[in-house]
Amino acid sequence: MGKEINLDSQDMKKAIDQLPSQIAEAYKMGDYIRVDKPVDKIVIIGMGGSAIAGDILQSYIANVPVTVIRDYNIPDWIDEKTLVFASSYSGNTEETISAYREARKKKALIVVITSGGRLLKLAQDEKTQIVLIPKFMQPRNAVAYMFFPMLSALENAKLLKSQDTAVRQTINALKKEGYEKIAKDLLEKNYNKIPIIYSSNKFSSIAYRWKTQFNENAKVMAFSHAFPELDHNAIMGFEHLIGHFHVIFLKSDLDHKRIQKRMDITEKLIRRKTTVTSLNIKGENYLSQLFTAIHIGDLTTYFLALRYRIDPSPVDYIEELKKEMGPYL
Predict the structure, then answer these.
(1) According to the model, what pLDDT value does residue 237 have?
(2) Out of 95, 211, 216, 219, which one is annotated catalytic?
(3) If you average pLDDT over residues 140-157, what whole number do you get?
């Protein structure tokens, strides 16, 4: 794949490989965020790659309700006791700007996470707390910068105990070798196939991340679903299967024992109709399992793009759509 690397016009591979150092840097970025009033719920406003971090936080946090909003409007229940993270990598995401303005009117406690744009200007003018993250990468490659400042901010708010050990173990896990081999094996299994990613609810944010990375990096259709719900509907789609699919099971020893059994039985059943890969997620803790799984997915979809002789970085349809939408006031 040596010559094919020239297809990578924006050096996405470098951004993927820098995930451990990005986590170390990003975890410190929320240190100065202060939450000086009672909070009983957390909301993340964002779209696309900027919202994925919210999905991961929603999976990771168990002691406070966490909601991810991908829309122009916010629910009526947001109030002064709501901690809102308004996340837009570019700072120009119109849905996020609209929702941010509504959250301001409701006097929610807001933290803006961005690299610039209109959202940064609004936050500066309104003296909203800001986490300013690095520019010059695709938003989907900034997942560490969108997630870990929230983690440290929640520590400051006493909503989360210190994550120092978990973060350190996650960084060390990502420095290990072998991820590229797993990714290259997976890409061949998914070549000229439609990927379907299955996981438990505990890892549904990661399954969805894989799905969107297949969409944006490799420019292919992909789907994700979670156990146990998929055993009550989606499994029947394999009885009269139309199309060429490859199913990826993301499995973890942290999953409920009954979920693990469901996965094994479901895998056995659908192997009658299509090809399957069962990936056992490793890690010393939940956080390290989440981010090693993200890393494998990012590498797999990157290498699949090169296999298709596609530049993984540009998202031409998205940019064309934004242009036709015109400016948002």
Answers:
(1) 98
(2) 216
(3) 96
